[in-house]
Automatic annotation (TrEMBL), chain A:
InterPro entries: MetI-like (IPR000515), MetI-like_sf (IPR035906)
Keyword Oxidoreductase in record: no
Keyword annotations of the record: Cell inner membrane, Cell membrane, Membrane, Transmembrane, Transmembrane helix, Transport
Domain of life of the native organism: Bacteria
Transmembrane domains' residue ranges: 53-78, 98-118, 130-154, 174-198, 231-252
CDD domains: TM_PBP2
Protein name per UniProt: ABC transporter permease subunit
ABC transmembrane type-1 domain: residues covered: 59-249
PANTHER family per the UniProt record, alphabetical: INNER MEMBRANE ABC TRANSPORTER PERMEASE PROTEIN YDCV
UniProtKB/TrEMBL annotation, chain B:
Annotated keywords: ATP-binding, Cell membrane, Membrane, Nucleotide-binding, Translocase, Transport
SMART domains on file: AAA
ABC transporter domain span: 3-235
Protein known as: ABC transporter ATP-binding protein
Keyword Nucleotide-binding: yes
Source organism: Salipiger mangrovisoli
Pfam families: ABC_tran, TOBE_2
């Protein structure tokens, strides 16, 4: 019994170490004065500052893209999920599968398709909204499915009908009944969308232009062309950005879920 | 408000004829109960009155003479209590009750005042600020009713409001609901498949079967003078006696039971409380089973008739299974009804 427990603990710790050690090492490398001489060379924020001066544009672009992506997927995903939830049936299943198709297609292929279709529209091609389109295509199924799952679990029809008997027209019913009850799904979906958008590399790599580098694209760029310390400092910046964001969204969604229990 | 239905029918897109043309008038302040077995079209009729379902072309529906057949549900000013209550989980008890008032565009202060009034009427004070999820079934039922009556609807529609509760609670809440509906004073239509519930709450009961309205009347009238065998069976569990009616006599295998008046060619029915064990009675029977129910015995009897008879026997002792007894039925207690379709 005790041996089994100890074994379990060891395994867990090993798994943690497996994930954490490279991360910590990378983060440490980002604040080491000279990586090849190790920590003895002293700690510095020089590299972080350099990353900031070189790539702050990428940071803001990524945050902007993620937020825009969240807004667009919410605006499309919630009404779409609502429409699908109201008419469950074969047609709705087919549409749901169709929207989910980008999940199964490699990001590269999706990007290629977008380039073939819109590549010649110069203004659009070089604009950040071009990358946004790719991100929306890729993340929409996550929003749609999260909202649909929540809406399918409540008796939407009778809730709406009871609102109607109390004098609420279609728009009020949507705002007062559908949206608040879909909120846990929207938050869960939003969490996924923001995370995926910030971390997306495949598709963005194909779609980006030299002036439009998102965080992961910038990361690849720094790995390829900068000192190792700068690349590591970049990883550190990435963590500092995304971890609080993830924690905030996780907190919001668990709060919302408790609200509806 | 007077509610008038004229030739209202409903055929669903898949061809199901849920309601045959029905005409009906419900008086101001009256509580009407729609009573019938599952699938007979009660909910469909209620939803047509609410505006949640449209009637087939040709039918009209009016409130106080105003034609509302085409009026969408949100503009009909009705109140409805759903079978599963359909309370808004994203609002508190107060929020639910105030929702209709908010939709009516009342100012905040007026909403708060009316909500407080309805909360008191439905005795919901201790729960007013709770979340819906923190209420028991009976409390939810009262919130659903409070929410429906708060905006002073023209007619109150209730779809089996007690069926989601367990049996003991149902009996308690039945009387409470009857009292509340009378206190509110609104015209109300109340759907149920439980005859006791219908009798306890309604001024008039409409018995439905397979999309038809068979008979409408006060509970006593339905019980004492059912229009046909279905109503007699459904309201008060009448049992067929079999035999043959000739003039003012019922002949069952040689036994002769007198009737109150001639009823040639009809069938004879009787209720359990009217069958007396009587050594001098004309009808022989064998005791099959005896159940003691506290206030009375329920005795299962076999005669030569088409179905076993159940007698409600109030004596201090009962015969034993296997005994042969004789039965008498007072002439006025034999219901003579047209043969069921
Ligand atoms: N949307 C629909 N489409 C097709 N048929 C329907 C629909 N709704 C109800 N029906 C049919 O109409 C008939 C009447 O249904 P209704 O719901 O009015 O019965 P009910 O008397 O309320 O029964 P219960 O006591 O079980 O609630 C049933 O045969 C039912 O199957
Ligand atoms: Mg029903």
């Amino acid at each position: 019994m005790r041996i089994a427990k100890a074994l379990q603990l060891t395994l867990t710790l090993l798994a943690c170490a497996f994930l954490l050690v490279p991360t910590i090492q990378s983060v440490l490398a980002g604040v080491t004065a000279n990586y090849f001489r190790g920590l003895s060379s002293g700690l510095t924020l020089k590299w972080v500052a350099e990353v900031w001066s070189l790539y702050s544009g990428s940071i803001f672009l990524s945050i902007g893209l993620a937020l825009a992506c969240l807004v667009v997927t919410t605006l499309i995903g919630v009404p779409a999920a609502y429409a699908l939830a109201r008419r469950p049936g074969r047609g709705s299943r087919v549409i749901e599968e169709f929207v989910s198709l980008p999940l199964a297609i490699p990001g590269l292929a999706l990007a290629l398709a977008l380039l073939q279709l819109y590549g010649s529209l110069q203004g659009f091609r070089a604009h950040w909204s071009f990358i946004l389109v790719g991100h929306v295509l890729y993340t929409l199924p996550f929003m749609l499915r999260a909202v649909l799952a929540v809406l399918a679990a409540i008796d939407l029809r009778s809730l709406e009908e009871s609102a109607a008997t109390l004098g609420a027209g279609p728009w009020r019913r949507f705002i007062d009944v559908v949206v608040p009850n879909a909120l846990p799904g929207v938050l869960a979906g939003g969490l996924t969308v923001v995370t995926l958008s910030i971390g997306e590399f495949n598709l963005t790599w194909m779609l980006h232009t030299p002036f439009l580098k998102t965080l992961p694209v910038g990361l690849a760029d720094s790995y390829a062309s900068m000192r190792l310390e700068i690349a590591s400092a970049y990883t550190l910046v990435f963590f500092v950005m995304i971890v609080p964001l993830l924690m905030a969204m996780q907190w919001a969604s668990s709060r919302a879920q408790r609200m509806f229990r | 408000m007077t509610l008038t239905l004229s030739k209202v029918a409903k055929t669903f897109p898949d061809g199901t004829r849920a309601l045959n043309p029905t005409s009906l008038e419900i008086a101001e302040g009256e509580i009407l109960s729609l009573l019938g077995p599952s699938g007979c079209g009660k909910t469909t009729l209620l939803r047509i009155i609410a505006g949640l379902e449209s009637a087939d072309a040709g039918g009209t529906l009016s409130f106080n003479g105003e034609d509302v057949t085409r009026l969408p549900v949100e503009r009909r000013k009705i109140g409805m209590v759903f079978q599963n209550y359909a309370l808004f989980p994203n609002m508190s008890v107060r929020g639910n009750i105030g929702y209709g008032l908010k939709m009516a565009g009342l100012p905040r202060a007026a909403i708060a005042a009316r909500v407080a009034e309805v909360v008191a009427l439905c005795r919901l004070e201790p729960y007013a600020d709770r979340a819906i999820t923190a209420l028991s079934g009976g409390q939810r039922q009262r919130v659903a009713l409070a929410r429906a009556v708060a905006p002073r609807p023209r007619v109150l529609l209730l779809d089996e409001p007690l069926s989601a509760l367990d049996a003991a609670l149902r009996t308690d809440l039945r009387d409470e609901l009857a009292e509340l509906l009378r206190a509110v004073g609104t015209t109300a239509v109340f759907v149920t498949h439980d005859q006791d519930e219908a009798m306890a709450i309604a001024d008039r009961v409409a018995v439905m079967s397979m999309g038809n309205m068979l008979q409408i009347g006060a509970p006593e009238a339905l019980y004492r003078r059912p229009a046909d065998a279905f109503v007699a069976r459904f309201v008060g569990n009448a049992m067929p006696l079999g035999g043959r009616i000739e003039g003012d006599r019922l002949l069952i295998d040689g036994a002769v039971l007198p009737l109150a008046q001639p009823a040639h060619g009809t069938t004879a029915w009787v209720r359990g409380e009217d069958i007396a064990l009587d050594d001098a009675g004309p009808l022989p029977a064998t005791v099959d089973a005896v159940t003691f129910l506290g206030t009375h015995y329920r005795i299962k009897l076999t005669t030569t008739g088409p179905a076993p008879l159940f007698s409600l026997h109030h004596g201090h002792s009962a015969p034993r299974p296997g005994d042969t007894v004789r039965l008498s039925i007072p002439p006025h207690a034999i219901l003579t009804l047209p043969a069921a379709a």
